[in-house]
User: Fold this.
Amino acid sequence: MLGKNLTIIGGSGGMGKVFGEFFKRNGFKITIYARNLERLKIVAHEFDINYESSLEESVKDADIILVSIPITSTVSMIQKISPLLKKNALLMDITSLKNMVVNTMQKIIKVYPINCLSLHPMFGPGIKDMKNYVMIVLKVGGTENYDDLVNELITLFELNGLIITESTPEIHDRRIALTLGVPHMFNILFLNLIRRSKEPLTELTKYTGTTFLLQKVFAESIIQRERDMFAEIQIENQEFHKVLNLLESLIKEYKTIIQKKNISKFNQIFDEALDYSKEDNDFKDSYRYFYDFMKILKQE
Assistant:
């Protein structure tokens, strides 16, 4: 059975607060730890939860430990706290990349009698309710209690409306390169391409059609979010580097088609994209979704 003492390392950050509130609402006793003591105190007071200024003290009696810190610091933190944890404790992370994290966890459970589970919540700190959002789960292993603990936690997530998707590190990182890395990249490049044209964005909006307006809104909403996380997701994920190679090849191909005015090749690459899109269950509704978004924008 899951114990109720839960520590969040990085608990004063955006996602730390989301999970602190979630687990508190579900009856857990929450302790948060972070390096910035003043911010730690403010968040603890705001959510009426405990805080601890000592890393060792924060984790030694915890039944569940959630690491909610930047990707590049997560592996070293996992290595640092693993010897401090009590037997059968459940250690989790919520990073956006999994190969290095899961590899580290697999080594740790061979040395220490603890349990490890890697999570990737497919939402950001702005949400108020987790219902109908996806939580990716990577099972690592641990003690004889592992299955019972993890199944109980997954049931808790599902009872709160989360959609659970199980994965492996390799599949996760490859698909995240496409579902997070690519949209982030395209929107960053979209704004920079417009900027390098030297056309003022305020002037371009006077010529805005539906497609440009929606793309601009997407790009401007993304560019306001966590720059460091975006950089880590793209720079640290080797699968994203492979995507960049594909993109480079595709851009060269597209440039040749346009320069040579090759209509047949243009039609081919267009139709290939269309046929691929038709495999999507939401394909038939996409145009309606597009104009639903537009109605919302026009109302504002």
